[in-house]
Design a protein that fits this description.
Blueprint lengths: L2 E6 L6 H5 L11 H20 E12 L3 H10 L3 E11 L8 E11 L29 H10 L5 E4 L8 E4 L4
Parallel strand pairs: 1-2, 1-5, 5-6
Antiparallel strand pairs: 2-4, 3-4
């Protein structure tokens, strides 16, 4: 089945290691690099093999890794559209400091800006709270489901199971 809507939550902490992969010989790959290669190639393979020619990608990234996200998606041939913000709590114990997490929107093919109708009321911060770090706010899912009610949706590296979504999570 070809999907038209993707939501991805990549392991961005491994991206800088992945970027250095051309510097290593194939027979001398350190374990951390191998893990990063597997993670980002898994995303690339899912997008190449499971997407229709025209599709949109919603990708989660923390403030710290936004440039890495832009670099990676440009490398895969995607056009940037916009981002939405989620003000999530910091996960360390004893700290109430909040962290910005971006839901960046990319497209390939004819699914570009005029086709993506972002309602004004949802262009503000997502306010949903989650119980653990693997989850994302329900507001984000609801927005995507409202924008694309009948299009096939796939979540890569996700943990939330919702009606209408397929979930792929590569376990190393």
């Amino acid at each position: 089945m070809k999907h038209e809507v993707f939501m991805i939550c990549p392991p961005w902490k491994q991206y800088r290691i992945y970027k250095r992969s051309p510097m290593f010989l194939i027979d001398n790959i350190p374990p951390k690099l191998l893990k990063a290669l597997v993670a980002f190639r898994f995303i690339e393979n899912c997008l190449n093999q499971l997407s229709s020619p025209d599709h949109v990608v919603f990708i989660w990234v923390t403030e710290k890794y936004t440039e890495e996200c832009k670099d990676y998606m440009k490398h895969l041939g995607y056009e940037y559209h916009k981002y939405l913000i989620w003000h999530r709590p910091k996960w360390k114990r004893g700290s109430s400091k909040k962290v910005l997490e971006y839901l960046m929107v990319y497209y390939k093919g004819k699914m570009h800006a005029p086709v993506l109708p972002f309602p004004d009321s949802l262009e503000t911060l997502f306010t949903g709270r989650v119980k653990d770090r693997e989850r994302k706010p329900a507001d984000a899912y609801a927005m995507i489901e409202a924008m694309f009610p009948i299009r096939p949706k796939l979540q890569i590296y996700g943990f939330t199971h919702r009606t209408g979504w397929n979930v792929f999570h590569h376990n190393n």
